[in-house]
Amino acid sequence: MAEPTIRAAGALLWRDGPEFAVIHRPRYDDWSFPKGKIDPGEHVLRAAVREIEEETGIVPRLGRRLPTCTYPVGERTKRVEYWAARPVAESAFTPNDEVDELVWLPAGEAEARLSYAHDVDLLREFLRGPLHTAPLVILRHASAGEKHAWRDADELRPLDATGRAEAADLAGLLHCYGILRPVSSATARCLETVLPYARLIRASVRTDAAFTVGDTSPEQAVERLLGSAGAPMVVSTHGEIVSALVTGLCKAFGEKVPDDPSLRKGEFWTAHLTGRSMAALERHSPRTTQP
Questions:
Q1: Where are the membrane-spanning stretches (predicted)?
Q2: pLDDT (0 to 100) of residue 90
Q3: Fewer Cβ neighbours under 10 Å: the N or C end of the chain?
Q4: If you count DSSP H runs as helices and E runs as strands, how many of each does the chain have, helices first?
């Protein structure tokens, strides 16, 4: 039986210049980008942020998704999920057993310093795309019980126990992207889904009829979304609206629409946008670490 794949997450961490954070690991005597194994039950977004903090002392904000690197490690395969990332907060680097040196280098010097071809490829891929992107998150509200079992006005239907747990998990996942402006459908279940995140970043949630089922149309929802594209934002909305938003966003930026643009409850799409392009699109669930 084949050994299970080793799953890891990390980032190409950069700052204005641009300069890139390259770390030295004494155990292997190599130079690479920050990364590490995903803990059992840990979400890949949280793992990427945690590993950067542990190895560099830098609190990052994740940017666009970069290609996944897969390579052999002995008789096993290692799969590393990567993002571009920018520092939000930085403390003095403290050498440790895993990482004893961190240097910030311009692209040419970073490429020459890196020990592995897959890291060089990752750097070159990043440089082919836009440096600065803004995350736009389309979020389907978390679990809210069965509609047919709710006897009051549908806009008052709240999250159930599963949904409340999902909303709490989503707060930390969304925070991996930094500060996003929270916008919601004007229904209890959508508001409650994004409320823990809004509390975390000390922001208020703006409701918008354009994203509220029964008060909008797919065309209106897409028009409102495109009018806000370019600013970091999370939109908490309904399953009936999600597919139209994702499809409209992809078509507006000339990108292929995903085979299944819909979402399960509590899942979200993150589009990484510039003023004129969509640099990446990724899908996540609060309940899994994403295979």
A1: none
A2: 72
A3: N
A4: 7, 13
Q: Which of 124, 45, 58, 135 is nearest to 93 (CA)?
A: 58
What's this model's pTM, rounded to 2 decimal places? Answer: 0.93
Cβ atoms of residues 248 and 225 within 8 Å: yes
Predicted local distance difference test score (pLDDT) of residue 290: 45
Residues 124-133 have pLDDT tens digits of 999 999 999 9
Could you give the CA distance from residue 240 to residue 114 in angstroms, rounded to a whole number?
A: 47
Read off the amino acid at residue 212.
T
Which strands form 278-284's sheet, in the order they lie side by side?
A: 206-207, 181-184, 233-237, 134-140, 268-273, 278-284
Q: Does 123 share its domain with 145? A: no
Q: Is the same domain home to 96 and 140?
A: no
Sequence-distant (6+) residues with CB within 8 A of 231 are 134, 181
Q: How far is CA 156 from CA 152, 159, 161, 171, 223, in A?
A: 7, 10, 16, 22, 26
Residue pLDDT, tens place only, 141-177? 999 988 778 788 888 999 999 999 999 999 999 999 9
Both 108 and 201 in one domain: the answer is: no
166 & 271 share domain: yes
